[in-house]
Amino acid sequence: MTLLLPFMLGEERYALKLTEVQEVIEDAEQHYLPAAPEVFLAAVNVHGRILPVLDLPKLLGFPAVPRSERMIVLVEHDFPLVLAVQQLEPLLSVDLESASLIRNDAPNDCIDGVLNWQGQMISLLDLEQLKKRIEEECSTPGGSHATARTDR
């Protein structure tokens, strides 16, 4: 069984494998990041480390929505990051081996696949694709300012 941390972006449900999540923080004091691309909201102090907060809905082109006070701190490999999302949901225990999972090959949508779990469609976030998308955003002067999604 795999534990997933689901969250909402707009009307869509996404999830991360719990092994990709260090912790969830709440009401963290946010600090301004001068000259950062628009997709970065702020920086927060997580156990003495200053980490950037990514506005995940904005990066993925969702319309502006209120964000949860709770944020997802990713497990630090070579890419320390905190994700701001619209709403976190309770953990799910899923057998990915027997679940209906449609793999995704689109290079820029940051989705590894879409899981049909008990009638719910859950997009599994691909952190490698997300990292590439952020690097592209940061290499563009002023950021590319993601456009709103119109396909949903």
Structure description:
With 152 residues, this protein is mainly beta. β1 (2-9) and β2 (12-17) form a beta hairpin. Helix content is 11%, strand content 43%. The strands form two sheets. Strands 1, 2, 9, 10, 11, 12 and 13 form a seven-stranded mixed sheet that branches. Strands 3-7-8-6-5-4 form a six-stranded mixed sheet. The longest helix is centred in the last third of the chain and has 13 residues, at 127-139. It has one domain: OB fold (Dihydrolipoamide Acetyltransferase, E2P) (Beta Barrel). Mean pLDDT is 85; it is low at 143-152.
Write down the overall mean pLDDT: 85
Our Rg estimate from Cα atoms comes to 15 Å
Structural class: mainly beta
Distance N to C terminus: 31 Å
Q: State the CATH topology.
A: OB fold (Dihydrolipoamide Acetyltransferase, E2P)
Q: What share of residues is helical?
A: 10-25%
CATH architecture term: Beta Barrel
Largest sheet properties: 7 strands, mixed
Structure summary, number of beta strands: 13
Order of helices and strands: EEEEEEHEEEEEEEH
Principal-axis shape: globular
In the predicted model, the low-confidence regions spanning at least 5 consecutive residues are 143-152
